[in-house]
Every structure is written in structure tokens, then in C-alpha cells.
Design a protein that fits this description.
single chain, two-stranded antiparallel ribbon, 10 helices, alpha+beta, rod-shaped, seven-stranded mixed beta sheet, 388 residues
Length: 388
């Protein structure tokens, strides 16, 4: 197909058009090619309107395939072919541009798809890695098993590692059930030593705490309460243990406390036996609260009482105490105690005039201060019925 000028109106039209779209003149089968100049004109004209070459030497275009028949003038044919090639070349240029655009679009789409696939694969890889690390840090068997289900294409190394952890935690669970059912402090500590990072650590600590507290409270003695505090300084019953110790100490008189009480009371009565006022006063708390019938007595009041016991005809006085102390403690400060002591005493008085020795029995009560001095004392003479 070639672009020609309409022989009628001069407008450019296709040589295959049945009629001219501008003037309507019939075109198909009515044209011929000038063999001399290559001009196309109506074959009914006997001469070329351009060069006036006779039409009998020309042959019209073949309407069936659009190819031209052999022309007599080779130069004119070459000129006509060149013209048609130029027109056809101009019409094919847009097709090259279209091909280039399509290629560019396909390339861009390919890059986008490749990038999306890369990002998707990278995201899947990161997701698998995060799930693997989380599973390996967990003691949850179900979480480990879910990794194998969710990532069936994970590496063999990761799958083997997950399966090894599953077996490890299954064994740990069996051992935990045994230790838990035993309720044994030894078994619980053994399990904790074997699995120091177990999620049951808090449970084990609480169970051991309860076991130790039960033993201490059942024994109800200072040593076990103190042992509980030493092993569980922040335990569930630490404050209870401290209170229990204070209560026991307040009710219980230690051996050292008894020795302190015995020492001061013995010294008091030995001072009376020896008529030693200085030593007697050393046993007294200053000030005293009471002595016999006196309230707020002074040291001199007590010394005067001793002197009055030694009348003119008294040869000796011998006090003996039974050391069978009944002691009640009273807290007067933070872990500071005074002691209310009750005990028995016997007084033997011998005379210089030959009078028989007199023996008097007393029920004595004394208060011993925290610093081991006598702050109060009373004596009640016991009278026995001779008929009995």
C-alpha cells in the first residue's frame, strides 16, 4: 500500500482506497503508473498529465496484492519504489516506539515482581528465625512442636535442634512431676540444682519455704526459727519467725539469764551472812522500787535492815536459798527484759546466850533488773502447823 495524491482533488489518499474520502471519485481499479515519471493517474487518460508520456507503455497496479507490475522505465520504477519505501518507513517508526515502550514496561514489571519475591522470601526467612529463637528459649513443648508444623521446610539442623529440645523438656517434665508428688525438700532441691533456670523455680522456692516453716513452727524453738530466717530471709513466714523468737525469748529464760539471776540473789544473802554492807549495796539497783514494806528505799534503808537482824544476843545468821527459781520475763524495751523471780529461802539464827537455834522458812520474791541488780524484794515467813 502506498500514499498517493488523488488525481481528482489532489488530497493524499491510499492507493488501495475504493474511493477518495475527500472528493468521492472512484479509485480502485482506475489508476495507472506512468512508466516515464512514476506519476499515478487515471488509466482512462491516455497520456500522463505530468510528462505527457503515452499511457500504452504503462501497466496499472495489481489490485489483488498491492504489488506493482514490471515497468518499462527502470529509473521511474526505482524512483517510485523509493518514494513508497520512504512513506512506508515513516509509518513503521511508531511501531518501533511501541515495541520499546512494551519492553520497558515488561522490564519494570519484572523488576517489581523479582523485588516482591525477594522481600517475601526474606520476610519468611526472618519469621522462621524469630520463631526458632523463641522456641529455643522456651520450655513449652507445644511451642517447639508448632515450629515443626509451621516451618516444615526449615533446615535439617534447626529441625534436629528443636526435636532435641522437645525430648529434653519432656524428660524435665517427668522429673518435675516426680519431685512435685514426692513433696520432699531433697527431691525439690535436686531438681532445682539440675534445672536452675526452670520456670518452676518460684514454685519450688515456695514449697521449700512451706516445708521449713512447718518444721520450725512444729518444734517451736528458737534454733529452728532462726534457721528458717537464715535460709529464707525474705520468706513467706520471716516476720512470723521473728515474732515467734521474741515470744519464746520473753517466756523462756536462758541459762545465761538464770546464772545472772542466781549470781545476784546469792550475793545478796551471802552479804547478809557476812554482815558486809558494801557488798550488799553492790547487789542493789539504784533506785529500788520496793524492799519489804518500804517503797522507794535507799541503799541505807537496806543496810539498816541488815543491821537490825543482828541483835545483841544473835551470834550468827545463815541464809540459804533453794535456787529453784520461778522466773517470769517482762519486756521493758526492745529485747530488754526484767525478771520476776520467786524462790524459797531458809534463815538460821544462832544466839550467844545458849538459846536454841531458830530456823525460819520464807517465800521470797525479787525483781531483777536488765543489768542484773535487785530492784525489789519481799519476804513472807512460812508458818507450819505443828499438829501436822
Amino acid at each position: 500500500m502506498a500514499i498517493i495524491k488523488c488525481p481528482e482533488c489532489g488530497k493524499q489518499i491510499s492507493d488501495k482506497a475504493p474511493t477518495c474520502p475527500n472528493c468521492g471519485v472512484q479509485i480502485a481499479g482506475k489508476l495507472t503508473l506512468c512508466a516515464n515519471c512514476g506519476n499515478i493517474y487515471f488509466e482512462e487518460d491516455r497520456i500522463c498529465p505530468v510528462c505527457h508520456h503515452p499511457a500504452k507503455h504503462n501497466r496499472k497496479p495489481d489490485a489483488r496484492d498491492g504489488k506493482e507490475n514490471t515497468v518499462v522505465n527502470p529509473a521511474a520504477a526505482v524512483t517510485a519504489d523509493a518514494a513508497r519505501a520512504s512513506v512506508n518507513g515513516d509509518r513503521k517508526k511508531p511501531k518501533k516506539k511501541n515495541h520499546t515502550t512494551v519492553i520497558v514496561l515488561l522490564t519494570v514489571v519484572g523488576l517489581i515482581v523479582a523485588t516482591a519475591l525477594y522481600v517475601s522470601n526474606d520476610w519468611k526467612s526472618d519469621k522462621e528465625t524469630r520463631a526458632y529463637e523463641m522456641a529455643m528459649k522456651s520450655e513449652d513443648v507445644h511451642l517447639l512442636e508448632n515450629f515443626l508444623v509451621n516451618f516444615p521446610n526449615a533446615s535439617r539442623e534447626r529441625q534436629d535442634s528443636i526435636r532435641a529440645h522437645i525430648e529434653k523438656y519432656k524428660r524435665a517434665m517427668e522429673e518435675w512431676n516426680i519431685a512435685l508428688s514426692s513433696r520432699s525438700k531433697v527431691s525439690l532441691r535436686d531438681y532445682l540444682a539440675k534445672y536452675p533456670n526452670t520456670k518452676y523455680k518460684a514454685v519450688i522456692d515456695n514449697m521449700i519455704d512451706s516445708i521449713d516453716w512447718a518444721q520450725a513452727s512444729l518444734a517451736n524453738n528458737v534454733d529452728l526459727y532462726q534457721q528458717y530466717i537464715n535460709e529464707h530471709p525474705y520468706g513467706n513466714h520471716a516476720e512470723e519467725a521473728k515474732t515467734a523468737i521474741d515470744n519464746i525469748k520473753m517466756k523462756t529464760v536462758s541459762q545465761n539469764e538464770r546464772q545472772t539471776i542466781d549470781r545476784v540473789l546469792t550475793a545478796f544473802f551471802r552479804s547478809v551472812n557476812a554482815r558486809d554492807e558494801e557488798r550488799l549495796i553492790e547487789t542493789l539497783n539504784t533506785p529500788m522500787t520496793s524492799f519489804l514494806t518500804l517503797s522507794g528505799p535507799t541503799d541505807s534503808d537496806v543496810a539498816e535492815w541488815m543491821r537490825r537482824q543482828y541483835k545483841d544476843n544473835v551470834k550468827d545468821i545463815l541464809w540459804r536459798i533453794d535456787h529453784k527459781y520461778e522466773v517470769a520475763k517482762r519486756e521493758v524495751g526492745s529485747q530488754i527484759y526484767e525478771y520476776n523471780v520467786t524462790f524459797g529461802g531458809t534463815e538460821e539464827v544462832s544466839f550467844t546466850d545458849g538459846k536454841a537455834t531458830v530456823t525460819n522458812n520464807y517465800r521470797i520474791k525479787a525483781v531483777v533488773s536488765p543489768d542484773g541488780k535487785i530492784s525489789a524484794m519481799s519476804m513472807n515467813k512460812l508458818v507450819y502447823n505443828n499438829a501436822e
